[in-house]
Each structure stands twice: as C-alpha cells, then as structure tokens.
Design goal:
single chain, alpha+beta, five-stranded antiparallel beta sheet, 15 helices
C-alpha cells in the first residue's frame, strides 16, 4: 500500500500532471454543477408546468360538467311550476287541464332540444288523463322503468335526487330496442295527507356525453379523467374500460380528506373535485407522464456533455502542454545555474522567449527576471567584496545606530555560506534586505521618525535575522488604525528585537515567534513586544527592571534596552518608559509607552 501511495505521489509531483488535474477539476466540477443545477431547475419547472396544465384542464372540464348539471337543476326548477300547475288543473275542468298538459309537453320538448338532454319523463297518477302517453308521460305505477320506487322519492321536497341508471329503455316511439346509461336528475311531490306521490319527473342525460367531454380533454395525453358517485362507482370516463368499475375505499378516503390540489396514490397524482350534485370528478396524472416530459431535457444535457467533454479535454491538454514545456525549460535552467560551482565564470543562461517583448506573458517575464537575477547576483558578489573593504566604516555606523556589529558579520557570513551552497537566491535576498535596511537608516536621519518607518526598518532587520537563523524566526505585527502616523524615537524597536532573538533562541526554544502590537493609550502610544523564547532568570530580570526604573545606562550590561529607555524618557522624545516581564522558557514581554506626537510624512 505504501508503495502505491509513493507511486501516486511521485506521479503527481510533476508540474504538468498537477496543472492538468487542476484544469480538469476547475472545468469538470463547474460543468457538472451547472449541468446538475440546470437539470434540477428545469426538472422542477417542467414538473410544475405539466402539473399546472393538467390541473387547469381538469378545472376547465369541471366548469363544463358543473354547468351541465346546473342546466338540469334549472330545468327541474322550471318544470316544478308546470308540474304543480298540472296537478292543480286535474281537479278543475278538462279544457284547462288539457291546456296545461299541452304547455308542459311543449316545454319538455323545448328543453330537450335546447339543452341536449337524453330524455325527460313525467310520471302522473295512474287515473290522470294523458299518463299513458308513452313519450313524455307515464303512470306512477311504472316508476320501475327507471328502477325507482316511491320510497326513494318521499323525502325530496324541493331538492333533487341524482341517480345513475344503466341501460335505460328508450320510449318505443323513438326506438324499439335502444338502451342507454343515464345520469338522472329527479324531482317529486309527496302528498303528506294521502301518503302517496302526486307526481315525479326525471331529467335524463346520456353518460356518453360526459365521457365525450372527458375524452376530448385528455385525448392526446396519458392523463385519465372520470366521474364517480359518492359510493365510488365510475359512471363516465375518458377511457371506456373504466366505466362500471368501483373505486377502492382507501382511494375514496384520500379524496374526502385531501387538502392539497392533488395527492399521490400508487403511481399517479390524483386531482379530485366535487361537482354541484355531490359527485366526484377525478383526474389521474401518471408519474411517468410527468417525468416523461423531462426526458428530452435530460437527453439534451447528456448530448451537450458528450460534445463538451472531448473538446474541453483537448483544450486542457493543449494548454497544459504549452505551459508545462516552458516551465520545464525554466526549471532546468535554474537547476543548471544552481549547480554551477562558479557563477561568475559561466555565461548567463537564457530562456527562449518571443522576439516581440509586447507578446511576453508571465512565464516569459519570469524567464526575463531569472536572467536579470543572474546579472544581479554577479553584481551583488562584487558588492560583497566592496562591503568587506568598508568594514571599519560600517562598524562606526552600526555603533551609532545602536546595532550590534556582530549582526553585520552574521549577515556576511550567511551570504558567503549561501554562495558556497549555491543558494544564490537567498544570498541575493539578504543583500537586497541589507541594502534596503541601510538605505532607510541613513535616509531617516532625524531622531524622531514615523512609527511606519520604524516598523519598516524593524521588519527588514527581522528578515535578515530570519535568513541568518535558518528560518526559525517568525513575527506578527498588529496596529490600530492610524497609529503608524505618530512619531517615535529612532532605533527604539531594533535593540529590543535584537535582544529577543539573541537571548530568546536556545536549545529548549529553537523556534521563536515575536508579536509586535501598537495600540492607543490615554494620549499615549503603547507598543508591546512579546516573544516565546528562553526568557530571563528572576535575578537578571530584577536587575534589569531596576536599571529601567532608575533610567541608568550600563555599557557592560543591558546596553541596548537601557539606552532606548534613557532616550525615550526625555520630554523631547515623548516622556516614555519601558517595562519588562519574563518567565524562564515561557518568553518575555516588553511594553514601550510614550506620548502621542503627530508627525508629517515627507519624501
């Protein structure tokens, strides 16, 4: 397993492989996410649109069927008056009765032709004239023609009784053998005094009309619609095979308790609504119909991925190769330069670049920088020789700046060591930082300088010390807003930082972290310098604290920090003071506090 992991790491150690993997991840992951989000959003939209369209169709159909039912109710209301008038005229003279009977016949014929009902039957008392007419009028004793008994009609009052009767016989005058399934709207008048029916009439509607409405609405889709009675019997449907079936009780219970526009039953979404006569209009939308509308979308996304992926892979391979070849060339040149024992004696290594400088990209600029770096290193080596000849003069300047002269020796020694080891980039950086450090210290010759400049000098110093100590030195600088624009006594921080490094690094604390923070006090600037180094023994700490309190300068002991303390205690330099606390192997904390002195930044 370890060998496999090593092979895997070795494979991914090459820049080209890393670049290729990065390109693939940066391309395929967004592409996959976009495809997934597009499919999810489109699927949701398609699902909503499909359901909305199906429910809208069902609601429009509901309005048509309810209108048909209301027509029957309205006709029944109109016939109620004619039937009552006919019943009253039966007890008067014959001519008035015949006129009323004729008017009723005309109205029934008009309603049949106007509203396209299947038939209207009026049942009169057996002894009443015209009850045996056989087209519109029948005797009450023949109610069984519609499979209705007088008991079924006793409690109607002014309301309607809706019935479903299969295979109703057509009157002989119209057809001798035609039978039709009918939806019937029933009305009757029950005489409470005699306990007998006075009359009853029935408006018949062909269930095929309702089935045609349902079939026309769902002719081109997999959705099915049907009408069901409260007991679950299906009387009309868009699919003829459903007629005559009975809905399961569990299905009816779901319909009765439903609160949402639809509910799920088995493999279908069910939309149910109650008609004006109390029956159910039900629409079944198969899940396959809803998901089927998204198949085209899924295929489109899949085809786009099949087209996009090869093109993307080709582009990635081309770009990664063009980049990695130049990086490989640059890396080889740098490696050859690093391994050369005498950089001054060899010719500068060049990196292939376009002839037109305006066409340079970042890699070309990196190659150009490398070439310039070679020349700079050679110039820097010459500068090192010149610096060695001016060692005495540098000692004097370092003493004047309160910097330990061994600091310069350490830097030069580190530069020489880096040169010997071929670490010319580190040597060049140390020379650059050293040059920048002295430029700042010489340029900022005033005794009071901006805290910003003092921190820059301190940072350069820390950078050089870090290189000298093999990068086992780290630091953090935290400033409150605007505090860097106040003045501070020149060379306040460097001697203290030097002590942190010189006395903080030991065998027990080989790595040291220095934290520098500057905050506002009461009309003062408060600077805290903390380290996690070796600390100070209690005896030496007590001695140092006493020297700081007395503001004395001992050239043999604690010269740097006491020198700073003496200088900043002057009213001209901020009437400041330094306090120190330390614990062995835990670190040291130095606090410098002085009055706020506003400065003006100058070039």
């Amino acid at each position: 397993m370890n060998m496999i992991m090593q092979q895997f790491r070795r494979l991914f150690s090459r820049f080209r492989i890393k670049l290729l993997v990065a390109f693939l991840l940066c391309t395929l992951i967004p592409l996959g996410m976009v495809s997934y989000v597009s499919y999810t959003v489109s699927r949701s939209i398609a699902w909503d649109k499909t359901m909305e369209a199906s429910i809208l169709t069902a609601d429009q159909l509901h309005a048509q069927i309810s209108a048909k039912i209301r027509q029957a109710e309205n006709v029944a209301d109109a016939l109620q008056y004619n039937m009552y008038t006919l019943e009253s005229a039966n007890e008067q003279e014959l001519s008035a009765y015949l006129d009323t009977l004729t008017l009723l016949r005309k109205n029934i014929s008009l309603y049949l032709s106007s509203f396209d009902f299947y038939q209207i039957y009026a049942f009169l008392k057996d002894e009443t004239f015209g009850s045996g007419e056989g087209l519109y009028f029948y005797p009450l004793s023949q109610l069984d023609l519609l499979s209705v008994s007088p008991e079924d009609l006793q409690t109607l009052g002014a309301s309607s009784l809706w019935l479903y009767r299969p295979q109703v016989q057509t009157p002989f005058m119209l057809s001798s053998d035609k039978k039709t399934d009918c939806v019937i709207c029933s009305r009757a008048l029950f005489n409470q005094g005699s306990g007998q029916l006075d009359y009853a009439y029935f408006i018949l509607m062909d269930t095929a009309d309702f089935s045609d409405l349902l079939a026309a609405s769902f002719s081109n889709v997999d959705t099915r619609g049907y009408l069901a009675m409260p007991d679950g019997a299906i009387i009309a449907a868009s699919d003829p095979e459903l007629c005559g079936l009975t809905l399961p009780k569990a299905f009816l219970q779901e319909i009765k308790k439903k609160q949402e526009p639809y509910f799920v039953y088995e493999d279908s979404y069910i939309h149910a609504s109650i008609l004006d006569n109390g029956w159910y209009q039900i629409t079944e939308i198969p899940k396959s119909y809803v998901t089927g509308s998204m198949a085209v979308l899924l295929r489109t996304i899949f085809i786009m991925l099949l087209i996009t992926l090869p093109v993307t892979l080709f582009v990635i391979l081309f770009i990664s190769r063009s980049l990695s070849v130049r990086i490989h060339t640059l890396s080889g040149a740098m490696e050859a330069f690093r391994l050369n024992s005498d950089p001054q004696s060899c010719d500068p290594l060049t990196i292939p670049k376009p002839a037109d400088p305006s066409l340079y990209d970042e890699i070309d600029m990196l190659g150009l920088t490398f070439e310039q770096m070679q020349a700079a290193i050679k110039r820097s080596l010459d500068s090192i020789l010149k610096l060695s000849l001016r060692e005495e003069r540098l000692k004097y300047q370092l003493l004047q700046s309160q910097i330990n002269p061994h600091f310069l020796y350490n830097i030069l020694g580190s530069i020489k060591t880096c040169q010997s080891l071929g670490r010319l980039d580190v040597a060049d950086q140390m020379i650059t930082d050293l040059t920048r450090f002295y430029r700042l210290t010489l340029h900022k010759s005033d005794e009071l300088i901006l805290l910003r400049d003092e921190l820059e000098i301190a940072t350069l110093y820390l950078n050089m010390e870090k290189l000298c100590h093999n990068n086992n030195l780290e630091w953090q600088i935290d400033l409150e807003d605007g505090i860097e624009n106040f003045l501070i006594c020149r060379f306040t921080l460097q001697p203290i930082l030097e002590n942190c490094i010189l006395h903080g690094i030991c065998a027990q604390t080989p790595n040291i972290l220095i934290r520098i923070s500057a905050v506002y006090g009461d009309d003062t600037v408060r600077i805290k310098i903390e380290d996690n180094g070796a600390g100070i023994s209690p005896e030496k700490l007590s001695e140092l604290q006493q020297s700081l309190q007395d503001q004395t300068v001992n050239y043999e002991k604690h010269f740097g920090i006491c020198n700073v303390n003496a200088r900043i205690s002057s009213a001209h330099y901020g009437s400041g003071q330094i306090t120190i606390d330390s614990r062995p192997l835990k670190g040291t904390c130095v606090i410098i506090e002085f009055s706020q002195m506003e400065g003006v930044e100058t070039e």
